[in-house]
Amino acid sequence: MKIAIVTDDGQSISAHFGRARAYLVLTVEDGAVVGRELRPKSAPHLDAPSGHEGVDGGHDTPAAHERHDQMIAPIMDCACLVARGMGRGAYDRITAAGIRAIVTDLVDPDDAALACADGRIVDLVERLH
After folding, report:
1. Claim: this prediction has a pTM higher than 0.70
2. Domains of the chain with bracketed CATH
């Protein structure tokens, strides 16, 4: 199972999906991480002057859907995407693409990937904004 983790440093789970610069894609088989790959990710919210508001539109517009689709294109081969925070629009768009979106309080990518693969991870939807 391939699990995408949003990250800025390859060592920890980023606090915000839209601002993360990369994905750490971990492959989990038989309860162990057997592969890891760092993939680039667009981060349009980093370039906006004031977060979401500075990006054209908002969370549920054609422009937002296009931005989210561009962000998730590199991980369409993954079963799950894990972040420590994200907007509702991104969460819904990721789910609509057939990828399980998970918001967690875990920081370690390996811990999150293993918990995701064996069904122990908790999706903290109250962290959506």
Report:
1. yes
2. 2-127 (3.30.420.130)
